[in-house]
Prior knowledge:
Helix content: under 10%
Oligomer: single chain
Strand content: 35-45%
CATH architecture of the domain at 229-357: 6 Propeller
Amino acid sequence: MALMAATVPRAYAQVPQTLSYQGKIKVNGNDFNGAGQFKFALVNAAGSQSYWSNDGVTVNGTEPVTAVAVPVQAGLYTVLLGDATLPNMAALPAGVFKNGEMRLRVWFNDGTNGWQRMSPDQRVAAVGYALMAETVPDGSLTSAKLADGAVTSSKIAAGAVTATALAPQAVVTSLNEAGFNALPSGTTLISKDSNSASLINAGYTSVGNINAGDSWTAITGGAARDRATAVWTGTEMMVWGDSGGGWRYNPTTNTWKAMNTVNQPAPRNDALAVWTGTEMIVWGGVTDLAYQNTGGRYNPTTDTWSTVGTANAPSARYRASAVWTGNAMIVWGGVDGTAALGDGAAFYPETGIWATISKVSAPSARQLHTAVWSGAEMIVWGGVNTTALSGQTAYADGARYNPATNIWTGMAASNTNPRFFHTAVWTGSEMMVWGGQSKDPAGPTGAEFILFNSGSRYNAAGNTWTAMSVSDAVPARMRHTAVWSGNEMIVWGGYTSPYNPAVYTSTGGRYSPGANSWTAAGLTGVPAARAMQNAVWSGSEMIIWGGTSGSELNTGGRYRPGQTLYLYQRP
């Protein structure tokens, strides 16, 4: 079969999210008539990477799986690439035209001779990049491009300047310049400072605080799962495990993309994962009681997997911990189905080598503990000492491991309850542990577990613990999630009763170490109650996805915290 095609890719001035493509088909020298089957992909100049394909899945310039039916008359045809109303045609994102030297690759099937790729790939000319005109790229509209006086009060929409858009202390500073004392008695002012010296010195008294403007945005998509792992890349949340394949979620476009499954590790539950800055490394986990000591490295730029070697790797395990140090993934502890483990190793992706870490002065063997990276040390805390959770001993101790010296250092005795299934975050100067469960020796068999709504802060520099306030704290829970926003720990979801029957929650709260206080998270638009979900902090939002409410979920939400504003009143 001989194929000939003349193509003219172009876009329209009003920037619909489609790209017009026309051509002519001849089969054995004759104009084709009928329903032609086409497959399309936008690829790089070498044809080795797909930027888009009509099935929305294929990569590396390979042929899409599904086809688009296009009518052909006297050999002539036309189709709108990205027209999602057509069966098997994926939407065409405007961002695809950020890629330079892009070409259109086409496959055709006349129904008789099978699939053939049309040659050559057609170069997309500059007019195609008009799709970028729909939005102004981030950072392109600078102050230098605005005329003096261009932004006037008449051009600012009502309500556009919110509290979150104001510089810290902007209003207070303005009032300070005008003189606080000029305001009448009873005046109430709002500040972002929980201990505003300027207001207190002016005679104002702190009278409380308010939570201003938090919000939830719903998320759907991906494949339902509840024992997956997730990382934040800087632009995407990547979720992998608990079933075959993984997903990438982009909050800017609110879209999901399936991860390539070629060469991925065997599917598993409860794998460990870290983000290196260029790759997601996953390791360990369990599948049908088969414990794993294998893993993989996923590069989102190339959408490809490479293996993690097993030479000198830790023994197979799950419910372990992992941190990324900047050049190595350190794995420690966990359980192998027979016993809890008290060893670990560091994987260096640059060399592909595992290095066993010292066990001298390491914590006792345990699982379901937490670990954070302080910038110089891995800090391990809490957990439980047995494979079965009944008859267990929970821990309230830990240790710090320095990979530069291969030395463990003990931690001061904590001032909080032993626990597991808790969470831990690193604030930049402290590790904060919160929530979780332990065994109540006085409790009846089958209901002997108790949950906590308490926690403590560990200062690594001073080797000291400080109890966290429980006033206004969210209800006790376990198997919840926690993220650090830069100034607050945000806790959400989990079980508020783990057994007979399980009770899930959709509540959450924000803990400020500066004020040692809690603020409830808003419930408007909150996702359904769940436990065992994944959570990441994007830099401005907490992204929650998946989990279980008795069955696996493929829903979630993006939580944007409002500011905690402090009220001061003039006597």
